[in-house]
């Protein structure tokens, strides 16, 4: 794995989530597929990490397992000090609700609710009142203060995704996961959403982990983790789009040679 002196600055940073020797296997015998092969990785607080890799590399599986949205075959996952494998279903649901934010590619907004109601929905379901100062900061950052009474059908795709970002941030989770959060947006709207995510890390101290296939999107992150064949094979700090593209080309060549 490629290392960099820049990694040293994170040596004492608190870990928001950690996977240790994490494996995910589907099927048995001839149909057996190893989606994750003993992956170990840390996601540090107040850091923006992008996960990249060729199709079928295991990047979405890794994020879903660490986010508690999918089970794993062996190894361990921790969110803060909590081991996910030891939790029962109700405990896992509560952890996801209280500690994790998730940004879906398809927005997943309720059409009958206003933008503000969609933003506060997870806290409303949990019976919790939002922290007004924090909520105001989030709404100010996404720049939709004048659209809060509008329903999703009255918003553009970029505005809907900004609402989805605000919903993930509003409960002040320990960590936010994004599954191709700009995949359905044009380049301008995508850049806006990525800018909000980056600012949430730098200005609000949020932790963000994003799966993406786009080198330009990955360049907004502090670090890029590269997967191939279910394993972490490379890592890049302070990425540029060109550097990410170069690494991805190498991985694509490697995948062709080994397939």
Largest sheet, spatial ordering of strands:
6-7-8-3-9-10
- In CATH, the homologous superfamily goes by the name P-loop containing nucleotide triphosphate hydrolases
Low-confidence stretches: 1-9
CATH architecture group name: 3-Layer(aba) Sandwich
For the residues shown, what is the average pLDDT? 88
Specify the biggest β-sheet.
Answer: 6 strands, mixed
Give the CATH topology.
Rossmann fold
Distance between the termini: 21 Å
Q: Under the CATH scheme, which class?
A: Alpha Beta
Give me the secondary-structure category: alpha/beta
| N-to-C series of helices and strands | EEEHEEHEHHHEHEHEEH
Helix content: 25-40%
Total helix count? 8
Q: What form results from the Cα inertia axes?
A: globular
Whole-angstrom Rg: 18 Å
Instruction: Give the total of domains.
Output: 1
β-strand amount: 15-25%
Explain briefly what this protein structure is.
By secondary structure, this protein is an alpha/beta fold. The chain contains eight helices and ten strands. The strands form two sheets. Strands 6-7-8-3-9-10 form a six-stranded mixed β-sheet, sandwiched between helices. Strands 2-1-4-5 form a four-stranded antiparallel β-sheet, with helices on one face.
Topology record:
Blueprint: E1 15-26, E2 33-44, E3 48-52, H1 59-66, E4 74-79, E5 82-83, H2 89-99, E6 100-103, H3 115-126, H4 132-142, H5 157-170, E7 175-179, H6 187-204, E8 208-211, H7 215-218, E9 223-228, E10 231-237, H8 241-258
Helix pairs in contact: 3-5, 4-5, 5-6
């Amino acid at each position: 794995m490629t290392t960099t002196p820049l990694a040293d600055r994170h040596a004492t940073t608190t870990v928001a989530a950690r996977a240790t020797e994490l494996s995910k296997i589907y099927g048995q015998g001839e149909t057996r597929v190893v989606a994750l092969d003993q992956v170990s990785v840390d996601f540090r607080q107040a850091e923006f990490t992008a996960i990249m890799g060729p199709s079928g590399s295991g990047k979405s599986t890794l994020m879903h397992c660490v986010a508690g949205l999918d089970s794993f075959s062996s190894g361990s996952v921790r969110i803060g000090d909590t081991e996910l494998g030891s939790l029962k279903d109700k405990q896992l649901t509560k952890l996801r609700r209280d500690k994790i934010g998730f940004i879906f590619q398809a927005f997943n907004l309720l059409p009958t609710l206003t933008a503000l109601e969609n933003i506060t929905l997870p806290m409303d379901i949990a019976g919790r009142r939002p922290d007004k100062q924090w909520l105001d900061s989030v709404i100010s950052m996404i720049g939709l203060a004048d659209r809060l009474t509008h329903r999703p059908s009255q918003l553009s795709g970029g505005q809907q995704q900004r609402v989805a970002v605000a919903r993930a941030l509003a409960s002040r989770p320990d960590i936010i996961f994004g599954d191709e959060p700009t995949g359905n947006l044009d380049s301008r709207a995508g850049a806006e959403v990525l800018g909000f995510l980056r600012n949430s890390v730098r200005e609000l101290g949020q932790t963000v982990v994003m799966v993406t296939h786009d080198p330009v999107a990955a360049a907004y992150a502090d670090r890029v983790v590269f997967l191939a064949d279910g394993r972490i094979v490379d890592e890049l700090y302070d990425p540029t789009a060109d550097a990410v593209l170069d690494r991805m080309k190498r991985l694509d060549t490697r995948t062709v040679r080994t397939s």
